[in-house]
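Saturday, quiet lab. Running sequence design on the structure tokens for the scaffold JK sent over.
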């Protein structure tokens, strides 16, 4: 008897691009040790906060974005508790074109990764003891949408200079800068004439500083998106949203640096 037959009936099934899922869970794994995934008829949601309560991360994949999505009967929601290190191991070697299937029951989950060969992992559905945060809602003084590769390069350049990155926005520009030792400085400035700055809305000028190590944790998520939304206010949390072309998104909220 194979694992599919042994598993039996499921409460929820989804099939998704394995490589995209890999990029998502690798980002989450740097923030959370365990995560609760909630599957409903609207799609999949994962949210959690790091132990230091400095960073919040949220994944939303609408049902229409899956290659296959099924919740038979009258089931409205199914919860799946996963160890993030284990989840990363399941999809770690996924390549473009590979597919991930998950069959979920109350007590266990069967992951299947279909590529050159088919690999299956029968794992327990964990009870997650950590208190789950509600959805974090924010209003920002500065909101911008930027080509993702430009943001990634600017943040990597900023890291060469210092451990703190500052975002500043005014009607005329969006700046990403870092100041290090011996007065070393780095600044990437985008103006409305810069092709990479797709939009800029400024209710009032603002500037705020953040720990670049925390931003680095989610830089691999740039691989799932073509553009990134950035929102912030002076000395308030930074919000970064990676929107995938398939309609899914990853939202990351980071508290300002304690200087």
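Result came back. Writing it out in full:
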């Amino acid at each position: 008897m194979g694992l599919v037959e042994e598993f039996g009936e499921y409460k929820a099934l989804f099939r998704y691009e394995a490589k995209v899922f890999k990029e998502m869970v690798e980002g989450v794994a740097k923030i959370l040790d365990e995560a609760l995934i909630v599957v409903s008829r609207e799609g999949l949601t994962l949210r959690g906060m790091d132990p230091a309560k400095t960073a919040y991360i949220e994944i939303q994949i609408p049902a229409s974005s899956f290659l296959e999505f099924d919740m038979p009967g009258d089931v409205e929601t199914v919860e799946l508790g996963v160890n993030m290190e284990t989840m990363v191991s399941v999809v770690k070697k996924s390549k473009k074109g590979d597919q991930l299937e998950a069959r979920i029951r109350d007590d266990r989950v069967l992951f299947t990764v279909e590529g050159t060969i088919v690999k299956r992992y029968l794992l327990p559905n964990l009870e997650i003891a950590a208190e789950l945060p509600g959805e974090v809602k924010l209003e920002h003084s500065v909101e911008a949408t930027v080509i993702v590769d430009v943001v990634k390069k600017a943040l990597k350049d900023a890291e060469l200079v210092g451990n703190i990155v500052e975002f500043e926005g005014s009607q005329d520009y969006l700046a990403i800068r870092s100041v290090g030792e011996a007065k070393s400085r780095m600044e990437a400035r985008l103006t409305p004439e810069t092709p990479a700055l797709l939009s800029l809305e400024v209710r009032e000028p603002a500037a705020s500083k953040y720990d670049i190590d925390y931003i680095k944790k989610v830089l691999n998520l740039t691989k799932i998106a073509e553009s990134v939304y950035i929102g912030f206010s002076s000395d308030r949390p930074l919000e970064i949203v990676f929107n995938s072309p398939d309609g899914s998104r990853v939202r990351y909220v980071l508290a300002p640096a304690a200087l």
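Notes for JK: The first strand starts at residue 12 and ends at 17. The chain has a mean pLDDT of 91. Ask whether to fix the surface positions before the next round.
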